[in-house]
């Protein structure tokens, strides 16, 4: 059984002693906190959950008539060398008084420590000991903390609160790393992943596609600067991020953001969305409602120009006719308005009179295909994966240059298109 702490005494009967030992074992064995399991720093070489007491025993201390000594060995189950381990206890002693002198019994509390140095990986230390109080009887003993010194870190476990604390022996001079949709990676062709409307800028999540990691901190604060965005005129702009770790080290990055001031298209989208969705619906339910609306709203007819998706979306909504670019454009307008990031996919290679456009949408942490254009042979293409498209048609219908787009999700959210034929 793994133990981080141990209870000992002088004139306590062994039954009581082992009850106390058992209680200490329950308190400290097998406890692994979130901080312990999620620590990402390679410099935390040994966790306190990997180091524990073993081969415990207690003996009277022959150097004192009333003292005792606690003996133990410590197991290092980690994959790294441990410099030192320190166990701390609070021990309460009862000191007998002298009735003849009207001196009552008294209780005193002392801190006892057991220190072990130098334990190789997967090894057990030499037997070490600590001496107890030289007078009185042990009444109770409480396991206070365990400290594991390994690498540059000191990991301390507190059984009372089942929490861990990591301190460092060397200064932290390394700034956090910001990754994800930053810089040129925040744009796909001419499409920007983040679109914010002027009338919906409050509470917008600019950090949706970025993360910050640090070699020591589990969480890193990321501040956002939107001062360079034009919410009056709209257009493409940059938002700036600053990641700061607990030591004050900073790193900076930026992402493109599309700002839309809003015009007739947004008013029309709001009118449609009010009819086909409800505010309390989940995003995925709204996406499916948009798919059904666009697919049933437009009658297919060839068009010559495939340039301005906003104009095309408005015309498709008003005239209820158009080709695949119209289906894509109206889908994009409605999806973006409800807060679903989406970009345009174009068939590759581009062939005259055989072009095709559809949407790639971000939902539930992944990118999925969304093609509202009807097919003669049927099929539903709302939130499908690459493999589902290939399963429907392995030819050129959905061929696209995969390297140009964000990595698509593989988990299925919808039935295979053929099942809806």
Quick structural summary:
The protein has 421 residues and is α+β, with helices and mostly antiparallel strands. The chain is built from seven helices and 23 strands.
Describe the structure.
Helix 4 runs antiparallel to helix 6 (324-337) and helix 5 crosses helix 6. Strand 21 (357-363) and strand 22 (366-370) form a beta hairpin. The chain is α+β, with helices and mostly antiparallel strands and 421 residues long. The chain has 7 helices and 23 strands. The strands form 7 sheets. It has a 5-stranded antiparallel β-sheet with strand order 4-3-7-8-9, with helices on one face. Strands 1, 2, 5 and 6 form a 4-stranded antiparallel β-sheet that branches. Strands 13-17-16-15 form a 4-stranded mixed β-sheet, with no helix packed on it.
Topology (elements, then pairings):
Elements: H1 14-28, H2 34-38, E1 51-60, E2 68-76, E3 82-95, E4 106-119, E5 123-124, E6 128-131, E7 137-150, E8 153-158, E9 163-168, E10 177-180, E11 187-188, E12 191-192, E13 195-197, E14 210-213, E15 221-225, E16 235-244, E17 250-260, H3 264-276, H4 283-297, E18 299-300, H5 309-319, E19 321-322, H6 324-337, E20 342-346, E21 357-363, E22 366-370, E23 382-384, H7 386-392
Helix pairs in contact: 4-6, 5-6
Which structural class should the secondary elements be placed in? alpha+beta
Q: What would you report as the Rg, rounded to the nearest angstrom?
A: 33 Å
Question: Order of SSEs, N→C?
Answer: HHEEEEEEEEEEEEEEEEEHHEHEHEEEEH
Can you give the helix content as a percent range?
A: 10-25%
How much of the residues is beta strand, in percent? 25-35%
Number of helices: 7
With strands numbered from the N-terminus, the spatial order across the biggest sheet is: 4-3-7-8-9
The parts where pLDDT drops under 50 for at least 5 residues are 6-42
Biggest sheet overview: 5 strands, antiparallel
Give the overall silhouette. elongated
Distance between the termini: 60 Å
Mean pLDDT: 83
Q: How many strand units?
A: 23
């Amino acid at each position: 059984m793994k133990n981080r702490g141990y209870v000992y005494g002088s004139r306590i009967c062994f039954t009581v002693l082992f009850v106390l030992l058992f209680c200490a074992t329950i308190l400290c064995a097998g406890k692994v906190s979130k901080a312990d399991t999620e620590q990402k720093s390679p410099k935390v070489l040994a966790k306190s959950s990997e180091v524990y007491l073993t081969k415990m025993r207690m003996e009277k201390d022959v150097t004192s008539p009333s003292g005792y000594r606690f003996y133990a060995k410590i197991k290092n189950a980690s994959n790294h060398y441990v410099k030192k381990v320190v166990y701390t206890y609070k021990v309460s002693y009862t000191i007998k008084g002298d009735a003849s002198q009207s001196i009552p019994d008294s209780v005193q509390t002392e801190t006892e420590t057991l220190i072990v140095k130098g334990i190789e990986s997967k090894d057990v230390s030499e037997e070490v000991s600590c001496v107890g109080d030289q007078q009185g009887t042990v009444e109770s003993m409480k396991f206070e903390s365990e400290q594991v010194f390994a690498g540059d870190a000191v990991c301390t476990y507190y059984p009372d609160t089942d929490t861990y604390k990591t301190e460092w022996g060397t200064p932290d001079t390394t700034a956090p790393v910001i990754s994800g949709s930053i810089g040129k990676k925040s744009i796909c062709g001419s499409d920007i992943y983040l679109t914010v409307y002027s009338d919906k800028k409050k509470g917008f999540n600019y950090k949706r596609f970025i993360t910050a990691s640090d070699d020591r901190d589990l969480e890193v604060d990321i501040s956002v600067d939107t001062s360079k965005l034009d919410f009056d005129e709209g257009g493409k702009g940059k938002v700036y991020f600053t990641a700061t770790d607990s030591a004050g080290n900073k790193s900076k990055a930026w992402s493109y953001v599309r700002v839309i001031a809003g015009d007739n298209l947004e008013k029309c989208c709001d009118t449609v969305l009010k009819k086909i969705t409800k505010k309390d619906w989940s995003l995925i339910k709204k996406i499916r409602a948009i798919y059904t609306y666009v697919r049933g709203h437009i009658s297919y007819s060839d068009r010559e120009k495939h340039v301005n998706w906003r104009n095309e979306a408005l015309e498709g909504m008003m005239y209820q006719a158009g080709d695949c670019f119209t289906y894509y454009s109206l889908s994009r307008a409605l999806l973006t308005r409800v807060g679903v990031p989406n970009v345009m996919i174009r068939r590759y290679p581009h062939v005259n009179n055989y072009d095709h456009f559809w949407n790639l949408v971000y939902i539930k942490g992944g990118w999925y295909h969304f093609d509202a254009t009807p097919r003669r042979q049927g099929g539903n293409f709302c939130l499908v994966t690459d493999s589902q498209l290939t399963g429907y048609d392995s030819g050129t219908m959905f061929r696209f240059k995969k390297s140009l787009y964000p990595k698509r999700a593989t988990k299925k959210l919808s039935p295979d298109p053929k099942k809806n034929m």
